[in-house]
Fold:
Amino acid sequence: MTWTTLSFNTRYAAPMFSSLAAYLPTSAGWLASWQLLVATTAVFNFVQNFVTLKFTRKIYDNVPSHTVTALQARTFAVWTLTSAVIRGYAAYNINNKIMYDMAFMSYLIAFGHFSSELLIFRSCKVNAGVMSPVIVSTTSLIWMFVQYDYYVRS
Structure:
């Protein structure tokens, strides 16, 4: 990396990042930022479910591939977008009991869905596609449960 490149990056990147920082949640702690990260990731997953079945079929890989349909992927996309909106709104309203509870419940629903598909319906195997949402939902549930009084002062 040359001095000119470094100078260019510093001169233009710093103002760009500082202007983006103005849009990030401002509450104390990291939970709001986590909510925004998860919500943003969900938006990408929403788009992916409309574009291709490839990744959805990787999640539900213990059933014949033709049973994972475009309709199922679009339905899953709508749920994913709904959860992204809830979690995104919670990121900016993390101290609001109603939003906190809604975000918590959205993780509980996600955990229930992926756990039941894995353990009850057996439509998936243990792989990165199914373990990612299980880990994110479990981590979020524990974090939100433990930190409830910190963020939601009754």
